[in-house]
Amino acid sequence: MKSVSLLALLFIGLFYAPLRKINWSSQRKLATSDYRIIDPRKSQSLYGAETYHKIKVDYSFDDSVLDYEVVTYFVPDSSWMKLYTGRQLTASEAAINTCQHTRGLQHEQGHFDLSEVYARKIRRTFQNFRLHKNEDSLTASIRQLLSRMTRAEKQYDAATLHSQDSLAQAAWSNNIDLMLDTLKSCENTKGSVLLK
């Protein structure tokens, strides 16, 4: 039985590669090459791109120390962008590609940055955790922040019309940058808090 389990694990390992991730960094912006490219002529989606990002939260504590790690990451294999490819592009197709490279990419970066804003808020929650609180209140706070992030992303898409409103996009981009600056003290992905 042990040999069957081992063979099954080896078989599964051959077909499932580890998840490719790009951790959020102020030094690295998303690029078109980070996305799977989909030809708009073959897509039913109304949107020009989709950015798949996650916040990974790990923590452990004992009577005296809380250790945590909160990482925002982008998953290239689950993210896509519509761009015309192949044959000689028409002027209209080339213009759409140019627009998608600039405005659309800026909008998708905004989603990734907004995710980092909420990761920093989660880190701040850990930094402010004290012994008189319990793990249930910590978990509830994290869930509440993740729920707020989902609402903020929906507001972002609605306000910017998914990047089509350039003035709203610029305002949101500036606001997200301000939030990141305000939470700069929570930029480190790992930390420890003395509980006593």
Kindly summarize this structure in a few lines.
The protein is built from 4 helices and 7 strands. It has 196 residues and is of the alpha+beta class.
Key phrases:
196 residues, alpha+beta, 4 helices, 7 strands, elongated, disordered N terminus
Given the structure, what is the number of helices?
Answer: 4
Oligomer: single chain
| Helical proportion, percent range | 40-55%
* Low-confidence runs of at least 5 consecutive residues: 1-14
One letter per element, helices H and strands E, the order comes to: HEEEEEEHHHE
Radius of gyration: 21 Å
Class from helix and strand fractions: alpha+beta
Number of strands: 7
Q: How would you sum up the major sheet?
A: 4 strands, antiparallel
Strand content: 15-25%
Overall pLDDT metric: 83
Number of domains: 1
Topology, element by element:
Elements: H1 2-15, E1 22-23, E2 36-38, E3 49-50, E4 53-61, E5 65-74, E6 80-82, H2 91-127, H3 135-160, H4 166-182, E7 190-194
Parallel strand pairs: 2-6
Antiparallel strand pairs: 1-5, 3-6, 4-5, 5-7
Helix pairs in contact: 2-3, 2-4
Describe the structure.
The strands form 2 sheets. Strands 1, 4, 5 and 7 form a 4-stranded antiparallel β-sheet that branches. Strands 2-6-3 form a 3-stranded mixed β-sheet, with helices on one face. Strand 4 and strand 5 form a beta hairpin. The N and C termini lie far apart (about 50 Å). It is an alpha+beta fold and about 200 residues long. The longest helix is centred in the middle third of the chain and has 37 residues, at about 90-125. The chain has 4 helices and 7 strands. It has helices spanning about 1-15, 90-125, 135-160, 165-180, and strands at about 20-25, 35-40, 50, 55-60, 65-75, 80, 190-195. It has one domain. Residues about 1-15 have low confidence and may be disordered.
